[in-house]
Amino acid sequence: MAIAAVGLLLAAAGAVPAASAARTPGWRVVAVLRHCGNDSLSSVAAGPRDAWALGHPPWGGGPGCGADVEHWNGTAWRRVPVPRNVALGGALSDPLAATSGSDAWIFPVRPAHVGLSFYDYNYALHWNGKAWHASGFPGKLGVWRAAALGPDDVWAFGGISPRAHPGTTIPVTVRYNG
Predict the structure, then answer these.
(1) What confidence tier does 13 reach under pLDDT thresholds 50, 70, 90?
(2) More confident residue, 93 or 158
(3) Which of 22, 70, 82, 112 matches a 20 to 30 Å C-alpha distance to 58?
């Protein structure tokens, strides 16, 4: 019995270094996400069980290249297709907000013309786990950052350019309440 106890202790002692080695702190590559060559990911939202990443290929990325939305479900990354006409980038950042695998928001770009100036503004696209649904803002808001607290509680932060003063930006905060 003593020999069995010593053997058990030695086996347990040998297992400790292996377990602690597996938990060595630091960064590691989990996945390389390349769909259209020289892609970029510019925004991320993560929680304890899942994560979202958003980016776009270089301009003129070719057929099938467009907004790149990726979802991590705790095990693997999966590309979430967006409608073909969705444009990201431009002069604005690529805001992303999410709370779960069935609640993510992106803010694609639409071009606008005011007087002699051209500028970009955003609209909202919400992923409900099955499909994207679009909604607009009250006015031509350029979204720089966003935060989601739930599917019916989303904040967008940015600015508007008044028609009377093109080139001027007024900071604005908007909230979606479902």
Answers:
(1) very low
(2) 158
(3) 112
**Which pair of tokens denotes residue 54?**
């958003």
| CA 23 – CA 44 distance, rounded (Å) | 24
**Encoded tokens for 76:** 């693997």
Helix (H) or strand (E) holding 178: none
- Spatial neighbors of 1 by CB under 8 A, at least 6 apart, are none
| Structural tokens at position 88 | 């990201």
The better pLDDT of the pair 168, 22 is held by 168
Question: Pick from 87, 125, 89: which is nearest to 104 by CA?
Answer: 125
Q: What is the pLDDT of residue 9?
A: 39
**CA count, 13 A, side-chain hemisphere, 116:** 0
Spatial separation of the C-alpha atoms in residues 139 and 28, rounded to whole Å: 43
| Residue 89 CB coordination number (10 Å) | 18
Residues in the chain, total: 178
